[in-house]
Design goal:
Two copies of one chain form a homodimer.
Chain A lengths: L1 H10 L5 E2 L4 H9 L3 E2 L3 H7 L2 E4 L4 H9 L4 H4 L5 E4 L5 H12 L4 E4 L2 E2 L1 H7 L2 E6 L2 H14 E8 L3 H29 L4 H9 L6 H12 L8 H18 L4 H18 L19
Helix pairs in contact in A: 1-7, 9-11, 9-12, 9-13, 10-11, 12-13
């Protein structure tokens, strides 16, 4: 995700200093006009605004707070935007810790996948102070299309958790319905068509339903990443005493898909747990 | 549902003979130009095409096969259209039994609710023979907008079961997400807004998500009817050995809502099992 997002920032005219553990995207971005930094601290030293995009909570904590991390280089009054998807609680903790040093942190996870990153059509869900959000707005507008300031620190991550809950649960529902149709010997294509026009209609039925019927599971969004996000949803729910009874089953299905070797499939691959490889009809 | 559908048939110029256990709708329809019959058999004797719209499987079996039922009056080469939502298996059995007497039966359950019945915008999911479907088409066109011939007998009911599965599971997912947002102290309005633009977007998030945040649960579609349809989904899945793990939880939530006295609420009332009556934010 980081590489196409950085490209869009360059294209929008931002001065960019980049660092990554993987050298290839950095080489490519330097070629395109970015400066190279040898650490996150060096990025922060060179920048008014530092953006992180990392796989999981421990990565974000390490890159923000570790030795040679962002905290080691960021000046007072600078801004940090973490666009990774992590737990709301550590997001709030990081924002509070940086605030003590006069550094604002926004949690700004995205949805829309690699396609959305390339096309600058991401949805960006932002948590943090108003003034920090306004300061970041031109950056968000270079990266995405739906930009919502959801609330204070952590609210962006809560929103992303809600998003991942609804997306996975809807995929599972569509998978269960289309598998039921196939097993019943009914043309699942026509079922999808009939359902699209009514209250069962959704982007998931349209896009992921299509993938299920075609048995094409190239990602898109990988099941193992959604399984990680599902753990964040369950954690976020536990933290506040919310119950998510149907999503618990969906999270277990995602884990099962990963254990069965389907982690690199698109999340629509949930269908493979329910239906045989070729249509039964 | 039957009354507004009958009105639309009259408005489209069909000669209509009506019977119901409840006298009021019959009086009203007779006033509007329909003829009155004293039994289902009498309706069938007077008609080339007999339509039934009833609450559940036993009602349909009674009205089609019971004493003074449709079978007692229907002529050879007449057509029976059952627009009730029932199990696929009895729908197939009834079609086979009537076929032996030269009478075609279509299963043609609808979605779209009372609003769709009044506005003639129902989705109609049809199972049965091609020639019977073609014969019924002008009738369907007077009643609905999305008319899909899904497949042979029972296919309409399977499709409706798939529809009810996806609708209830999506409502539950949206309810779990919005309740999580509220419990996290995050503005659930903004979460809904942020999610509508992306892959979490659906008619359910739009319409039922709105009802949840407004705490307005006038039906719409009653939870007790969806609980009944959920039992049909589980039955249909069991019949063909399909697994519907997340929907099992959704069906249990619907039953719980009905047990808790929420059966007359709109099915968006699933939210009340997860969130307090007033927003926690």
């Amino acid at each position: 995700m980081g590489r196409p997002m950085a490209r869009n920032l360059l294209a929008a005219g931002f001065d960019l200093t980049v660092h990554s553990r993987s050298p290839d995207p950095v080489d490519e971005l330097v070629e395109a006009g970015a400066s190279r930094a040898s650490s996150a601290a060096e990025v922060a030293r060179a920048s008014d605004v530092t953006i992180t995009m990392l796989p999981d909570t421990p990565d974000v904590e390490l890159v923000l707070e570790g030795a040679e991390g962002v905290a080691a280089g960021a000046a007072e009054r600078s801004l940090v935007i973490d666009m990774s998807t992590i737990d709301p609680q550590p997001a709030r903790r990081l924002a509070a810790a940086f605030a003590e040093r006069g550094i604002a942190v926004l949690d700004a996870p995205v949805s829309g996948g690699e396609r959305g990153a390339i096309d600058a059509t991401l949805s960006i869900m932002v948590g943090g102070e108003d003034h920090a959000f306004e300061r970041a707005r031109p950056i968000f507008e270079a990266l995405g299309r739906t930009i919502v300031h959801v609330g204070p620190s952590g609210a962006g991550q809560v929103c992303k958790a809600c998003n991942q809950l609804v997306v996975a649960a809807t995929i599972e529902a569509v998978a269960e319905a289309l598998a039921l149709a196939e097993r019943s010997g009914v043309d699942a294509e026509r079922v999808r068509e009939a359902l699209l026009g009514g209250f069962a209609g959704s982007k998931i039925l349209e896009v992921h339903g299509r993938r299920m019927l075609d048995r094409t599971f190239e990602p898109g969004f990988r099941a193992r990443l959604h399984a990680k996000d599902a753990r964040i949803v369950l954690e976020a729910a536990r933290d506040v005493g919310a119950v998510v009874p149907s999503f618990e089953v969906v999270a277990a299905q995602l884990d099962r898909l990963v254990r069965d070797g389907g982690g690199e499939l698109d999340h629509a691959g949930l269908f493979t747990l329910l239906a045989p490889p070729a249509a039964a009809t």
